[in-house]
Amino acid sequence: MIFVPFIGIDNHRRCVTFMAGLIANESTESYIWLLKTFLKAFGSQPSMIVTDQDAAMKNAINIVLSQSRHRLCMWYINKKLSDKVPSKVFNHPEFKKTFHKTVWDSKIHPEESEASWSSLIQNFDLQSNSWLSVMFDMRNFQLSSLMQTTSRSECDQCLLDHQSLTTNSIYKTFLPIERFTTDVYTRSNFFIVQK
Known about the structure:
alpha/beta, 3 domains, 5 strands
């Protein structure tokens, strides 16, 4: 049995498990059944879905959740990177710096992004790397830096909320509301109010 969690971010910007399912196999049919069950329980399609690169899941999402934007999880892509590029390239500090600057900049224009990607491929002699070519071809599908992982245990937001329990806030004003929000809000909402 395969465990499939449905994880999202609530109104307090915390990761929560909305639903979980068990499927017999990772086929398109199994994912279709699971997604239809999700729709039956929640009544509407989510605005965005972040997954790994599972082809069967992608097919099922296209069929059942056609109104949702489907994004690929950057955490999974980063995890694969060390296996997909030569080690001398992966260990080169400029490669990682350039790669991350190219894929994590949400404000970069498409032309700049493509130029940066081309420069990365040329500078590190990666023209024959088929995995990077496939990733580039998927750029219209879009990668999601909004949510780095689909797993609750690695969710950055959850880590920030955990830190709010174990670290002290740094106050920028003498206003009472700033201290009040430390007790009432999650760390991420505290930063919004503080700003």
